[in-house]
Design goal:
The structure is a single chain. With 148 residues, this protein is mainly alpha-helical. The protein has two domains: 44 residues, no CATH class; 76 residues, DNA polymerase, domain 1, CATH 1.10.150. Helix content is 51%, strand content 11%. The protein has a three-stranded antiparallel β-sheet, covered by helices on one side. Helix 2 runs antiparallel to helix 3 and helix 4 packs antiparallel against helix 5. The termini are far apart.
Length: 148
């Protein structure tokens, strides 16, 4: 049984034990949804909670392997990019995401996106449009993934 400790503050995540004995570590994601992982031992759940909190502090979503590139791009453009961009730039980003990025890499899981997928997307966009359009699509994707 875990030792009694102070109550966690809001936003620090939580630990609880299910009826089947599994310990659940839970954190609140920036989009308002909860993400949780289960462990058999209390100490493992505490370590998992610490790892999830560290990832969130570094800007890494713990469920990155489960969400698609399209879901991440929608979240990124609405919550992260929108407050920092001028309206015309934001409209250009939304258009690029809708017409170039989502059709080519939108269905891919975020954790499984590879440089080959990005190169293939750039080549397809360059074939269908201009090379500047392909360059802009790459730039928006790189910004959304935190590579720039």
């Amino acid at each position: 049984m875990p030792p009694k400790k102070r109550r966690r503050a809001k936003g620090e995540g939580g630990l609880y034990q299910r009826a089947d004995g599994m310990w659940m570590a839970q954190v609140l994601l920036p989009d308002g949804k909860y993400y949780q992982r289960g462990r058999k031992k209390y100490a493992d759940a505490v370590a998992e909670l610490a790892a999830m909190r560290k990832d969130l502090a570094n800007g890494i979503l713990p469920n990155a392997g489960q969400i698609t590139v399209a879901q991440w791009l929608d979240y990124w453009v609405d919550t992260i990019a929108a407050p920092r961009l001028k309206p015309r730039t934001l409209a250009t980003y939304r258009s690029t995401i809708k017409h170039q990025l989502i059709p080519h890499v939108g269905s891919k899981k975020l954790g499984k996106l590879t440089p080959t997928d990005v190169r293939r997307m750039v080549n397809h966009v360059a074939d269908a449009h201009t090379t500047r359009t392909a360059q802009a699509a790459y730039s928006v994707l790189a910004k959304a993934l935190g590579m720039q």
